[in-house]
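Here is one chain, start to finish.
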Amino acid sequence: MDAHVTDTPEPPRFAGWDERPAGGPGPDRPGPPRIPPYRRHRWRWAAYVAAGALLAGSAAGWAVYTKLNGNIRTDSATERELRKWESERPPAGPPNAENMLLIGSDSRKGGNRKYGRSGGQRSDTTMLLHLAADRKSATAVSIPRDLMVEVPHCKRADGTETGPRTAQFNSAFALGGPACTIRTVEKLTRIRIAHYMILDFVGFTRMVDAVGGVQVCLNRPVQDTEAHLTLPAGRQTLHGEAALGYVRARKSLGNGSDTQRMQRQQQFLGALVKKVQSNGVLLNPTRLYPVLDAATSSLTTDAALASLRGLYELVRSTRSIPTDRVQFLTVPRQEYRYDRNRDELVQPDAERLFGQLRRDLRVTVTPPPDGAEVPVRTGDDSPAGRPEGSPSPTPSSGPSSGPAFPGTTAEHGSCE
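Its structure:
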């Protein structure tokens, strides 16, 4: 009987296999080529160097992260105070839409002492920033410091409490810090504030220097001793101290009103946003580091933003917003009926604006033509109450664009 034979398939062959006979090395069967000792040492040292470089890079990256992360100051007292009044606060808006308060403090503590004395900490500039849920637009609404508002119960720094009162808006920060300011804005707008940032004078100047200055255009020379500002007419780039004087000046620029100062601040911030985006700062680590270092070293925020990761996520979600959809405007207001040196809201215009932001609906701003300044008071809708050809301050609804308000965008700076 024939034996059963099973054919064993040959193993697959691949290019580069040695066609050596089986049986191991021998006189006629040489083994694999030997690596000279000096080459083995080279490869070993190359591996050590690569591993060392990787560890050094990781250590350096961790050191940078730790430094920037440690720069940010967290204000836990504000969050505790807000939790006490949770029942009075408005509900959260649509998912993913963000509302945050940007507060420019004129505190003279620490490095800010060189800017003179102040009768306590006040909010020099306050903006309500709304980030649309789809991150296709950002709207910053300036709240005048002279706007008469209802300030609720607030807790002072010494632990005592103030009663509700009608007062200038910037008094809320002086009375009860950011918690009082946030609750005042929420009472005024019925918009829930999720985050806040406080930036002081030093932080502002360092931010401007970190991006290489911001370009502005002046119709005439400026000499302002109070703002420590001396500038020629024409197009020019302002750096730290000059930029701070430019956005703070009142008597030497425009008609001396806080209204025109806010417009100037909005244009300057728009130009700053445009420069950061056009120079690729957010995508270039060597350019981004000094900006982050300047920003974080002078920031006080809520706990959710008080980390480099929290700030990065915020920036990352907004860096694709086109500059013509980064908008700046001021709440519709007019002279206060009891004091022409104060402001009050114009209704129903203000409620239309707040309602759009509450529901995360589109708001459109219309820059004044030919660089004309928005009127000092927006309550007068007569031709005499605004520059010739400027848009009416009364919003007009449209199905696609939404209500339109006088304002500017990051695309429309002081030199456009």
